[in-house]
């Protein structure tokens, strides 16, 4: 049996390790992802597959970048709808960039911009951090 000593687990907030998520979500970054749309629109009716795929891309970007303001590029929309409303591509390679919001009356200081990647070859590629030149 495994018995845990009560002293081995930090209990007070001062002893807990600092969380770095707050500072990480504030900087500008660009990443390239492969989104598996096939599993995200499973069991959706034919006339709702492409709209649901667009919504799922928006949800993915929201989770990945931590911003509630997500803007999709027109080219990405055309790529999702390229085979029609019911034959959505199984996977799509996207570039998600977190940018500063220049509007004065914006609710958040950052927003995510999602566009389709130029190279749609998917095999052997994971998440890549894109270096801005």
Task: Characterize this entry briefly.
With 133 residues, this protein is α+β, with helices and mostly antiparallel strands.
- Supply the number of helical segments: 4
Shape: globular
- What structural class do you assign from the helix and strand content? alpha+beta
What composes the largest sheet? 5 strands, mixed
Which helices and strands, and how do they pair?
Layout: H1 21-24, E1 29-36, H2 37-40, H3 49-65, E2 70-72, H4 74-80, E3 91-100, E4 110-116, E5 128-129
Parallel strand pairs: 2-4
Antiparallel strand pairs: 1-3, 1-5, 3-4
Model description:
24% of the residues lie in helices and 23% in strands. It is an alpha+beta fold and 133 residues long. It has a five-stranded mixed sheet. The radius of gyration is 19 Å and the shape is globular.
Primary descriptors:
133 residues, alpha+beta, five-stranded mixed sheet, 24% helix, globular
């Amino acid at each position: 049996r495994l018995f845990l000593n009560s002293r081995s687990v930090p209990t007070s907030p001062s002893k807990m390790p600092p969380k770095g998520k707050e500072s990480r979500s504030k900087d500008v970054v660009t990443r390239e992802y492969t989104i598996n749309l096939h599993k995200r629109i499973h069991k959706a009716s034919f006339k709702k597959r492409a709209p649901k795929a667009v919504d799922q891309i928006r949800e993915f970007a929201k989770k990945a970048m931590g911003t509630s303001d997500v803007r999709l590029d027109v080219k990405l929309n055309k790529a999702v709808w390229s085979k029609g409303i019911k034959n959505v591509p199984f996977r799509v390679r996207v570039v998600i960039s977190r940018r500063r919001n220049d509007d004065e009356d914006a609710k958040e200081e950052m927003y995510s911009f999602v566009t389709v990647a130029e190279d749609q070859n998917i095999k052997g590629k994971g998440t890549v951090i894109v270096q801005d030149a």
